[in-house]
Amino acid sequence: METNTTQEKIIGIPRAMSFYNNYPFYYGFFTDLGIKIVLSDMTTKQTVSDGSALVVTETCLPIKVYIGHVINLINKGVKNIFVPSIQSIAPKIYNCSKIRGLPDLVRNVVKSDFNLIEATLDKSEKNCGLYSFLAEMAAPFGITDEKIIKRASKAGWRCYNNFHIMAKSGMSYKKALNYALQGKVFIETHTKEYPISIALVSHGYNIYDEKTCMKIFDKLEAMDVKVYTSLQLSSEQLNDGILSLGNEQYWANEYDMTGSAGHYLKDNKIDGVITLTAFGCGPDSLMIERITRKAKRFNKPLLNLTIDEHTGEAGFITRLEAFVDMLFRKKRANIINKFELGETKAEYIPNTNFIDTKK
Ligand code: SF4
Description:
Strand content: 5-15%
Number of helices: 14
Shape: globular
CATH architecture of the largest domain: 3-Layer(aba) Sandwich
Distance between the termini: 70 Å
Bound molecules: iron/sulfur cluster
CATH class of the largest domain: Alpha Beta
């Protein structure tokens, strides 16, 4: 791929899509190379409408948000913008076409003067693996020395691994990211007891962007619910999860979806599962189908939430509250059946009418 060398050692990274999985790596890598990172601002209504105005309506929300973040960087005067094309993360394990074609999409819809730093990661193709991806990230800044690139890669992995150690210990995404960027590692020791535990199954870009997910973590926390995500699981647990849903991994983002769902559906500490997907997402609609069927077999309550730019917060909260309320009732019923009624008496059936008609 042809790239122009830039004098300016500044790179803009859109706070969207792969940012939510890979930013600790990007941060460690670019910082070690002496390249300053400028991030786009947090997602706002304006970000969504800027992105939506440039792509066809059917495009999924995360892509609209991504385009909005590219516009935000351009408005900040950033000249070099990093837009990776992550084709596949392992042989024959692919990303969806929108993620794969992200640089082409950006080039075609954003008609402004900026340099697109478009590195390609494709582990299904020869010579298109991690090193060439990193070399393509560094080349536009005139950095081609293999030793320097490998050293920066180590710095990237260090930051990335620190982030995952902290997130796995139960630390919140935001806190783990902040510490990792400061080069610190702590283990979460906070042991608050929660009456209800939920697994939130989704992609990082759907749940860690506070505007996109409408602060779902805060809302569930306020309802006294402990939330688990794929970040608390090891790659072995995620692989097992994928297999337990009866399939080999095909999509790169199955770890987030079928991997974590497959694991948490079997986990007794989890009272229910919430999936959060973007309207119009092809891969997710296939994976949700498998997750829903398996949830029925495990008798695990499941709530599917679909989001787009028109999703109203009031309806979103109502669905969350109804689901959490049902989980509380189910749990109470289980406790009563176990300790109070005994085996000889009739089973206690919870009232699942959310409108109490007796009043
Ligand atoms: S996986 Fe789904 S949500 Fe993500 S970019 Fe592709 S279509 Fe959009």
